[in-house]
Amino acid sequence: MFPQRLDSPLAYDIAKAMMDGFNRHYQLFRTESARAKHRFETADWHGQQRAQRERIEFYDLRVREASTRLEREFKAGEQPMDVWHQIKLHYIGLLVNHHQPELAETFFNSVTTKILHRSYFHNDFIFVRPAVSTEYIENDELATRPTYRAYYPQRDTLHEHLVRLVSDFELRIAFEDLARDAGYVVEELNKRLGEVKLRANFQIQVLSSLFFRNKGAYIVGKLINGFSELPFALPLLHAKSGKLAIDSVLIGEDDLLILFSFARAYFMVDMGIPSAYVQFLRSMMPRMPRAEIYNALGLAKQGKTLFYRDFLYHLRHSTDKFRIAPGIKGMVMLVFDLPSFPYVFKVIKDYYPPQKDTTREQIKGKYLLVKQHDRVGRMADTQEYSEVAFPRERFDDELIAEIEKFAPSQLEISDRDGDGQLEVIIKHVYIERRMIPLNIYLQEAFDAGVDDPFARGQIERAVLEYGNAIKDLVAANIFPGDMLWKNFGITRHGKVVFYDYDEIEYITDCNFRKVPTPRNEEEEMSGEVWYSVGPKDVFPETFGPFLLGNNAVREVFMKHHADLLEAAFWQGHKERIAAGHVHDVFPYERERRFVRKYAPDQAESKP
C-alpha cells in the first residue's frame, strides 16, 4: 500500500538526488552525441569510433555514482518500505514536466534494484509500467530546436527546398556541389512519386538533428502527401575532394529498417526529447518495435526496459511453450526460443568440449566486444539480462532437462516471488533477434533440388551474401573465428548476419598464414597437421573443406569470394587497418550511390 501522507523529508531528498544523477547522465550522453557533428566535420573517424564505444558505458557508470551517493549521504538501503514508497511518489512528481521521463523512470529502476537487491525488492518500488506520459512533450525554451522542421515545396520548387533543407543543418564544411546532388535526389523522389497529384498538405518533415554513425551523417525525414507518407534518408559523406556530397537517397520503410537495423552500431543523435524522435521514427517504420528504435538511438537501457515489457505482455497473451531452438546445437551456448516470439534466448553452458578452450568470463567479454564495436550490419545486437523469471508451466520438460544437463549453475526453479506459482529463473541470458540459420536456409534449397531455378537462386543469394558478410566484418576489424554456415543467419531482408561470438578476434590480433609446402612425401600424406601452429595463427586456405562440400555452393563461392581462401586477402586488410585506415561499409547497395548511377567516371565518395 502507498502511504496516505508524504511525511518523510528524507524521501524527497533521496528522490531529488536520484533525479540529479539521471540529469547528469543525460547531459553527458547528449553532450557526447552533439560532439559527433564536429568529429564528422573534421573527419575524425577514430574519434567517432572511440566515442561510440565509450558512450555505451555511460549509463552503468552513472548508476554506480548515484547508488554510491545515496548510500553515503542517506543510507538509502537501510530505509524502511514506507520511505521507499514515498521516494517513488516524490520522484513521479519530479517527472511531471521532465523532457526525458521514460529514461528517468528506467534510471530509477536501475538505481533502486542496485540498492535494494532482493532484501525486500517488490514491484511497488519500481516502474513496472510508465507513470508519466511521453505524449506531446515540448521544450518551450527559446533557444531550443523543434523535434522536426517542415518544408512546403511544390513540384517545381522541390529542388530549391531540398537545397535549403540540407543547408539548414549548418555543417561547417562545404559541399562539393549541393545543387547537383539535390538534383539527383529530386530525380529519385520523382521516380517514386510518379505522376501522383500533390495534395494541399504536401510537405517534407525532417528531424532537426543529424544522425551520425561511422563515417556518415544522415538526414532523416518523410514526404507527406494526402494520406500517404514516404520515409527517406539522405546519407552525407566526405567526397575524395575533402568536401561533402549527398551519396544516395534511401526511400521507403524497408530501406529505413536496414539503416536502423539491430545489426548496426548505434547512432549518435543530439535529442532534447528522445520520445518525440522515437514517435517520429515509429511513424516511418511501424514494423520496428519501439525497443529497437531506442537501441538504435544509443538508449540501449531504455530499449532493454521496453523489450522486457513487450516480452511480459506477449507471455500474458500467448500459450505456447519455450523449447530447444531448432538447428545444430552449439558447443558453448544453449539456445532456446518461444515459437510465437521473434527472439532467441542464449545461455552460456557450464562446460565445453576440449576444442573450445574458453571460459564463461571470456565468452561474456566477446559479447561485450560486439556490443561496443561497429557491427556494420553483420553482427546481431544482443540484450543481456540477469535473474530472468519465466513461468514454469511455459517450459518444455525437454528444455528443462537440457538446461539441467549443460547449464545447471544458471538454473533455479522456485517460487521466489511467493505467488504460489513455480518459476524458472535463468541467472544470465542473452536475447537476440531470431533469424533463419544459414545452414537450414541452404538445406531447404538443397531439398528442393539445385536444378530448381528458385532453389538455385536461393543458394546463389545466400552464398553471395555470406561472403559479403565476412568481408564487411573484415572491414570492421573482426575475424569471425568459426565461419561455419550454422553460425550465420538470414534476416527478413535477406541479409546474412553473424551471431556466434565465442571465437571472434580482431583481425589485427590474428596471424594469417599460407599452409607451408610439405618437405617430403610423409608430410604430404600425413592426416595430421605436421607444421607448427601458434595460438593466433589462421590458415584461410583450410576453410574450403569445411564450407564448400556442396558443388552448387562451391561454384558460387569460388566465382565471387575465392579471395577469402587466400592469406594475402586477410593479411592485406590487417595491414591497412593497422596503418589507421577506416574502411567503407555502406548500409545500402553500392549500385545506389549517386557517384555510380550518375557519374561513374568520377572519384567515389567515402562513407
From TrEMBL:
Organism (species): Polaromonas eurypsychrophila
UniProt family annotation: Belongs to the AceK family.
Name of the molecule in the record: Isocitrate dehydrogenase kinase/phosphatase
Cell location: Cytoplasm
Family matches, as Pfam families: AceK_kinase, AceK_regulatory
Listed GO biological process terms: glucose metabolic process; glyoxylate cycle; tricarboxylic acid cycle
Source organism, top-level taxon: Bacteria
Species lineage: Bacteria, Pseudomonadati, Pseudomonadota, Betaproteobacteria, Burkholderiales
Binding sites annotated in the UniProt record for ATP: A325, P326, G327, I328, K329, G330, M331, K346
Domain Isocitrate dehydrogenase kinase/phosphatase (AceK) kinase: start-end pairs: 320-589
